[in-house]
Amino acid sequence: MDSLHAIGFYVSAAISVGGGLALAFLPGRGSRGVALAVAGLGIAGLYLSLSAGFAGLVALVCFAGCALLLAAPHYRVIDAAVGGAWRQAGAVAAAGLFALLAYAAWRGDFFHALYYSGDIGSASIGRLLFAHDALTTEAVGALVLAALAGATAMWRGRGRGR
User: Fold this and answer.
1) Alpha-carbon gap, residue 68 to 34, rounded angstroms
2) How much is the pTM?
3) Does residue 104 register a pLDDT over 70?
4) Dist. CA 152–CA 145, nearest whole Å
């Protein structure tokens, strides 16, 4: 990876972390929606710097859709159905997962894939994702699942309003 790609990678990483922190700490739906969109822009930049243009486009669309749902005036807060002990267990599990991902990122190496069908070919993206590791493929799958769940929630919310 040359220095220009490394700079793009680290700038995108800083943008996504900044957007995530802003999402966690800013008050108000509108500002949180903008923060989520900024985090999505950073994630898309990360994928683009890793030569995965299609995955970056999918991430950008997913984050933009979720940001619009979050910033919408008809967004409702759902009261938590679990107690404090389960929340703490989830927070500890999330911290453990973060530590595992940080270790994998620290020990990992960048992979350079050859493209046979252009920059946004599905076969090339599949080779890139499966050749490097399956964790990236699972992350993209989780993004698509979150986007589908958000679209379903929005669709059902419109149906109830009629």
Assistant:
1) 9
2) 0.52
3) yes
4) 10
